[in-house]
Amino acid sequence: MTKPSVFTADLILPAIGDAFKKLNPRQLVRNPVLFTTAVVATLLTVLLLIGGERLAVGFQVQLIVWLWLTVLFGTFAEALAEGRGRAQAASLRAAKSELKAKLLLGTDDLYEMVAASQLEKGEVVLVETGDLIPADGEVIEGVASVNEAAITGESAPVIREAGGDRSAVTAGTRVISDRIKVRVTQEPGQGFLDRMIALVEGAERQKTPNEIALTILLVGLTIIFLIAVSTIPGFASYAGGGVPVAILAALLITLIPTTIAALLSAIGIAGMDRLVRFNVLAKSGRAVEAAGDIGVLLLDKTGTITIGDRQASALRPLSGVDTDTLASAALLASLSDETPEGRSIVMLARQKYAMPTRELPSDAKVIPFTAQTRVSGVEVAGVVIRKGAVDSILKAEPELADTPAAAELREITDEIARSGATPLAVSRDGKLLGAIALKDVVKAGVRERFAELRRMGIRTVMITGDNPLTAAAIAAEAGVDDFLAEATPEDKLELIRKEQAGGRLVAMCGDGTNDAPALAQSDVGVAMNTGTQAAREAGNMVDLDSDPTKLIEIVGLGKQLLMTRGALTTFSVANDVAKYFAIIPAMFIALYPGLGVLNVMGLASPESAILSAIIFNALIIPALVPLALKGVTYKPMGAGPLLARNLAIYGLGGLLAPFIGIKLIDLAVSGFQLA
Amino acid sequence: MTFEGWALILIFAALTVALAKPIGLWLYALYDGRRTPLHAVLGPIERGFYTLAGIDPTTDQSWRRYAVHMLLFQVATLLFTYAILRLQAVLPLNSRDLAGQSPDLAFNTAISFTANTNWQSYSGETLSVLSQMLGLTIHNFLSAATGIAIAFALFRGFARRQASGIGNFWADLTRVTLYLLLPICLVYALFLVASGVPQTFASLVDATTLEGAKQSIVLGPVASQEAIKMLGTNGGGFFNANSAHPFENPTALTNLVQMLSIFAIGSGMTWCFGKAMGNTRQGWAILAAMMILFLAGASVTYWQEAAGNPNLHVLGLTGGNMEGKEVRFGIAASALFSVVTTAASCGAVNAMHDSFTALGGMIPLFNMQLGEVVIGGVGAGIYGFLVFAILAVFVAGLMVGRTPEYVGKKIESREVKLAVLAIAILPLSILGLTALSAVLPQGLAGPLNKGPHGFTEILYAYTSATGNNGSAFAGLTAATPFYNGLLGTAMWLGRFFMIVPILAVAGSLAAKKYTPETAGSFPTTGPLWVGLLVGIILIVGGLTFLPSLALGPIADHIAMVRGQLF
Question: Where in the sequence is the active site (chain A) (predicted)?
């Protein structure tokens, strides 16, 4: 997927056009602070036209221009954020518009070609090699490999088959082998792709709860400052003078939180957009906010904490059995085993136990692994070597069950399990030789990640189907806070409920239909794109890469979104101090010349001071647009240091920056004799 | 400035902090409905009240019910006092045959005492013993108890989990009055009597002055009213001269104890809050923020008063500003008292704030404009402060990457809306009514002085009334129907238009789930949080008033420096 930068001409130009379109009062009123600014700008424009003010016309015109620019910068920021989303959606839409569907007419494979957009929910389509899947749906017949690169960017094909947990297919992906029949599961225009386009474009965006609350605060501050400013003429009249409306307006607009109000929706859209770039689709902004608040992460062991495949780590012969004998048997039994585990046994035997490299003898007969026996092996020159789980081997060789060798084997395998590995038993010609330890390899760096999460106040719980012994050992090695062994979907659901009752928000990921209740119950439920339709419906996010590790990054993105919002709010509020010191002396100097001492910045003239404050107030918006779109730098750390850092940058910075900024603008304004 | 002056200020601050825990422990017992040692004696009386009134103190009230009962009680007692003040002439214990108050004056006075303001448009000497005791002192107890009750209700909102009620107004009111205010006042009043404060039904004493003239000095049950006037941050003096009067405040020791008693409950409430939240550090953080604002204010006022007026220095009158100060107390104790009484919404004075230097007098004004949250009125200080805490958490809380929460409760739209409502009432009433008075002829007739100083007199009056402080800058002729009416309105707005949203916040918070604190939670203890609180209070609470301060005390000060006096 392309990654448009913040400022490129093809993004900025349309955004400028949209910025003007957003001046439509019905749209603008959704942002009360900008709306207030627009009303004030209109009022001053009218006053200028009817000549109601005694101020210099040039000064008034400049003031009005900058007020309108303040509004436009705000609408521009939003338009730019939407534009970036739209650019991303455009490539998706291009794929969608060409889609054709082979709509099946009856029980035979007769079909007619229709446009994908006309497909109704419940209709069945045929998709053959080379075809694009026309709509989101479920495979009801057949199996096919599908390239989902259009959605995920990952070119390796995935298997989609009827029944089971891999039956969901997504519109816009391509079948690269075989043919499948797909039942459409979405109404036209409601598909995955449609929703994705709508979300990244911002068209479907609703304000999140936190945005609503913040908007209320901004409106409240606006009202308070409106009271503060509108009472000034009364005070001034006591002092025997007056204050021109234009100057009152300037004070009002600089005091009300225009900066954060202008950037608020851009921050939200950009946050959503970052998630999409990360190939995660959130179904609502609320879910992204919830991600920041997560207190407990439920992580699947396999693939997230350990690398997916187990690796053979040691051979444990029984007493009286030569290590070489065991190694040789294990090697022979695994030569035809093409699973990663089998290959790792071969590697182990060759490297650690120095078994000579050899091909499987031509007369060897492979005993394949079946679901019934759960044992695999090889028969070479009449000698049968078996390998499998201890219980399976003992089942295959029932006469061994009660021997002392079996008892010793069990001791060894228990020990292996306690160390966090999985034991496999090896037998040759009805004699137990020993065990192979298959170790779950904990991914590099996860321990540090979990320590990091702990510092952020997030607990990690490992979910695994392993027995408690193995699970405890892996949990200790990986450094998770807790684990749920032999986990069933019901266990997961119960764990989530328990954590939520304790006031913690829970995030998890899942893909199977039986994960759906837990996904729905969790506060952030990330469904894997490879998962079933039910799972994808139940979660409030879908990870297009189907990578369970991403849960950690999703939490980070949620936090980054909230931090950006908080940082810019704090910055905006802190800015007011300097603006007071710019405008108050300028406003009252005619009444009490002595108040010039409040002009701590030494601004050139009252007019220049007012103009500089209003220009700073306007320019700070585009200056902060990149920050709003990219988000503030997020490093995982505890709340204390995080607050100290952000408060220093955005609180203290917000206090000081306008003093410097207004002074510099004033030098320019007075230098060019604009006021 | 003297070493003794600074020592007084610092010792006072230390004593205030030292009082936080002992008083807080007692408050916490009342908050939590625990048994105190006094229950053995007062328990039957408490139960007697409930039986008489037909109240079940264990009934948990929703915030709406709590608010309605509270308001009905206020209105009923308001009407009762209004009637007493109007009918003074025909009521008993009126040995000096004093006339009743006019309707506007009685309206103003009744609201003033109901709203824990004790703004006095009348002179204390014009009230009979009955009016003082039954009409006013009763409110000194009940309005203080109401403030504490509201704070308790808000604490419960934070502390309870998924609950529908926030306590019982009648139980809170009765317990606070019975187990806290009355016992302390009993001991306190006896201490005052021992120090020379009168407590008698005799009405006049004749004295022969140094010049040999005969002067009649009003007497009465002064000590009993004095105790609750301070402890309950009421501030309404028995005499017009308030705590500058030797019969109200006879010695240096009573002066110190009076100041301490103004802060005592407010300081204890911060500890009680922390305890109620299960983490006393939460309370200490609030007290720390309050003390920073307090010490900053006290330092400025003391510095300015000690520096005095340069224009008088030129004339050979060296030294600090002693105009309007009681010689017995001097500059430091007067400056400190003025900052304490305005920080805490008490309003008792031992010096005339009008006569302070411009900046020295601006601090008391600014203290009130901050919303009376620097220690603040009993109960009112902490609930006002918590509103700012909610705003601070909301503005900056997002910066730790979580949606805002305070002491385990999520701060969402509803709380923000109500907090903003509660805060907006201050500028609306203070600035709105000041602006009105600054343009209307009835308003312009009020101030004694010209120029910015006269403006400050008007501004101070509305600030004091809205902040439920009640101290007078003096100089303003406020006993007119215009000012009585508007100031009465300001007092009502400042009290109940703040309390009702706060009870609504309590109700909304009580219903919420509890979010346990983790390493990722916004830290609401420690220096960062304290600094943030101070910043938000100054920026949101204080900056709004900068234009008015610029045209009042700041312009006044600059003029003084330039040799122009008003």
Answer: 300 (4-aspartylphosphate intermediate)
